[in-house]
TrEMBL record:
SMART domains linked to this entry: Lactamase_B
Protein name (database record): Glyoxylase-like metal-dependent hydrolase (Beta-lactamase superfamily II)
The UniProt record lists the keyword Metal-binding: yes
Organism domain of life: Bacteria
Family: Belongs to the metallo-beta-lactamase superfamily.
Pfam families from the UniProt entry: Lactamase_B
Domain called Metallo-beta-lactamase: residue spans: 30-257
Matching PANTHER family: BLR3078 PROTEIN, QUORUM-QUENCHING LACTONASE YTNP-RELATED-RELATED
Swiss-Prot/TrEMBL keywords: Hydrolase, Metal-binding, Zinc
Protein source organism: Brachybacterium aquaticum
Amino acid sequence: MSAPEAGGAGTLRIHHLDCGTLRTPVGVMVCHVLLVEVDDRLVLVDTGFGLADVASPRRLGPVRHVLFPDLDPARTAVGRIRALGLDPSAVSDIVLTHGDLDHAGGIPDLPRARVHMLRAEADAIGARRGLLSVQRYRPGHWSHHPHLVLHSPGSTTWKGLAGAVPLDEVAPGMLMVPLPGHTPGHAGVVLPLADGRSLLHIGDAALDAETLRTGRVRPDVRLRQHVIADDPATMRRTQRLLAPLARDPEVLLVNSHDRGLFEAARARDVR
C-alpha cells in the first residue's frame, strides 16, 4: 500500500498511496497520492476518490464508465490513513495538483483541512465552462465549501520551472510549481527527501513514464491527453520542460497514474 520515505530527526516521512485504482480499457492505472507526516500533523498531496464516491458512484458522472475505478472504502485516502495506524483527523492540509474528480474526491472526507491550489484552478472549478470542465469538476466534491487557500505563481524558478510557490507553512521545503496544460491551474508539488534529492509529483502533466523519459508521446497517450487536456499545446510545452527532470539523478519524479512510476517510488524506501 505504501512505502515511507524517511530519514533522521526533522525530516519528512512520505507515504505513497494508491487511492483509487483505475481499470481502464488501455490498462490498469493508479491514483498516486502522497501522505506526508509533519510533526503531529498529516498533509496530503491529492486525495483520490472519497467515501461518498464509493457510496454513490453516480456522483462521478459518465466518466466512471471510462475509468472503471475500484471504489472501495479501504482504498480511499481516509481508509489508507487508518490502515497505517494514523488518524485522518490529523490531516491539516491538502495540496492539489488539480481539481479533477479522481484527485479531489476525498476532500469532503477531511472537512477541517485547508485545501491549497493555484488560483487559476479554483477559477476554472468555479466557472465549470464547457463539457470537459463539467465532467472533470464534480459539484459534490466542493459543495461543502472547503477552506480554500489559493496561490498565485511565485517569482522564483525551481530547476527550470517558473512560478514556484513556497509552502513551508504546510511542510518544510514544500513547493508548488505551475505545470499548465492538462487543466488551467495544474501544478506539481516538490518535497525534500532525506537523501538530499527532491520528490516531484507532476500530477497529470504527463500521463506515462515513456513520455517523460523520451519526450515522445505514444499515439494512444497523445490521443488521451488531447481529449482530456484543457490546452494540449501548453501541455506539450510543459512536458518538454519536465523531460530533463525525469533524467535528473537529484529528482525522484512521479505522476498520478503511471503504475510503474508508482511501484518504483514505493520500492525506494529511504530510511
